[in-house]
Amino acid sequence: MVDVTREAESGDVGGPVLFFDGGCGFCRGSVAWVASKDREGVLRYAPLGGETAGLMGVASGSGSGSAVLVDEAGEVHRRSGAVLRSLVVVGGFWGGLARVGLWVPGFLRDFVYGVVARVRRWLPVGKCVMPKGRVLG
């Protein structure tokens, strides 16, 4: 079992951490999809309302529906930046596509992100299978 408290307090959670809205089926499904593309198992995942988010200081002010990525350097990326940078970490085709997406101005990317965040409850969600060993509290 992972000692989330010790890892979060020390800042060593085994790689970059993608925080997501754990109460949202679309968000959980999206994280499961990203995890399926992460063949190297580089990313770790944690709900925004969880213990790890609180210990790492990303829970407050992030808001419901906001993805947050804390990279290996400790830099915090939010919303579309978090999603795209997570895909860059995953690499492959999706990482390359995300690199292109990062060229789009942030205000435009975040506008699209906001639209998806508002309608996500109506989007279809498949079976969500979270990756064992990479989900933090």
Question: Which descriptors apply to this entry?
Answer:
single chain; 137 residues; 4-stranded mixed sheet; 45% helix; globular; disordered N terminus
Would you kindly provide a written description of the structure presented here, covering whatever features stand out?
- There is one protein chain.
- Mean pLDDT is 79; it is low at 1-11.
- The longest helix has 14 residues, at 106-119.
- By secondary structure, the chain is an alpha+beta fold.
- A hairpin with a 5-residue loop joins strand 3 (68-70) and strand 4.
- It is 45% helix and 10% strand.
- Strands 2-1-3-4 form a four-stranded mixed β-sheet.
- It contains six helices and four strands, in the order H-E-H-E-H-E-E-H-H-H.
Topology, please?
Elements: H1 4-10, E1 17-20, H2 25-37, E2 44-47, H3 51-56, E3 68-70, E4 76-78, H4 79-90, H5 92-101, H6 106-119
Parallel strand pairs: 1-2
Antiparallel strand pairs: 1-3, 3-4
**What share of residues are in beta strands?**
5-15%
Total count of strands: 4
Strand order of the largest sheet: 2-1-3-4
* SS class: alpha+beta
Number of helices: 6
Principal-axes shape call: globular
Distance between the termini: 11 Å
The description of the largest β-sheet is: 4 strands, mixed
The SSE string, one letter per element, is HEHEHEEHHH
Unreliable residue runs? 1-11
CA radius of gyration is 14 Å
Mean pLDDT: 79
Helix content: 40-55%
